[in-house]
Amino acid sequence: MIALAPYPSLILGLMPALPLPRRRNTQSKEPPMYATITLAGTVTAQGPQTGAHADGRITVHDGSREVTGWPIARSLRGALSGLALAVLGLGGGAAFQPAQAETLLNVSYDPTRELYRELDQVFADWWVAQGHDPAQIEVSHGGSGAQARAVIDGLEAQVVTLALASDIDKIAAAGLLPEDWQSKLPHNSSPYTSTIVFLVREGNPKGIKDWGDLVADGVEVITPNPKTSGGARWNYLAAWAWAEKNGKDPKAFVGDLFKHVPVLDSGARGATTTFAQRGIGDVLLAWENEAYLALAELGEDQFDIVVPSVSILAEPPVALVEKNIKTDAQRELAEAYLNFLYTPEGQAVVWKNFYRGWDTSKAAPEDVARFPKLDLVTIADFGGWKKAQPEHFGDGGIFDQIYVPK
Amino acid sequence: MTARPLFQRSPMPGFGLSMGVTLTMLSLVVLLPIGALLMKGAAFGPAGIWDTVNRPRVWAALFLSFRLSLFAALFNLVFGTLLAWVLVRYRFPGRRLLDAAVDLPFALPTAVAGIALTALYAPNGAFGSLAKEIGWKIAYSQWGIFLALVFVGLPFVTRTVQPVVEEIDREVEEASATLGAGRLTTITRIILPMLAPAALTGFALALARAVGEYGSVIFIAGNIPLVTEIAPLLIVIQLEEFNYDAAAAIGIAMLLISFAMLLVINLIQIWSRRRIGHV
Question: What is the ipTM of this complex?
Answer without folding.
Answer: 0.71
